[in-house]
């Protein structure tokens, strides 16, 4: 009531002063970061004002997030482990190609195709552990054909891998279809399956067009 209003009147000048001071710090930090990145060929997000770096994860570690959902079992677990192995191998090779943030973007990294091709071809064994010879050959052809003047993101690399593993044998496709049918009987929520906070209604239904 009146007492709170009185405290507000007393504290408001300090709040305004702190806001002005914070604005001055942010202004100096933005100028310093611009000079650092533009003149010294750096790629920093901030110099002093660390508050610009935010976190979008609900938990501090992936282990804490996984504990909130039941662990996968059976065929679903096998399929997830198989594709995680492919993802880990792909990420390992990608990181060896010295990824960097592209100009004016901070939410993903890219590599130079010229550098990536050398790393990719010299680490054939890492990918052959999770890919068949036919899949490796198809993926290799796509990587070799990359434009040397472009940039390759990890997401795009994953799309190349997806294009390669589509050529798996019919037995593998049948196994994936059986997994999909078994999951349909007791389908987990989207949040449980992908460890996110979205609901099932936010995701469009899977059709043959989207699968293709």
Short description:
The chain is mainly α and 212 residues long.
Question: Describe it for me?
Answer:
This protein is mainly α. It is built from 10 helices and 2 strands. The chain has helices spanning 2-39, 62-66, 74-95, 113-122, 124-128, 133-144, 154-165, 170-185, 190-194, 208-211, and strands at residues 110-111, 152-153. The longest helix is centred in the N-terminal third of the chain and has 38 residues, at 2-39. The protein is flat.
Summary tags:
212 residues; mainly alpha; two-stranded antiparallel ribbon; 2 strands
Low-confidence stretches: 169-176, 182-188, 190-212
Number of strands: 2
The percent range for strand residues is under 5%
Widest sheet: strand order? 1-2
Write the layout of secondary structure elements.
Layout: H1 2-39, H2 62-66, H3 74-95, E1 110-111, H4 113-122, H5 124-128, H6 133-144, E2 152-153, H7 154-165, H8 170-185, H9 190-194, H10 208-211
Antiparallel strand pairs: 1-2
Helix pairs in contact: 6-7
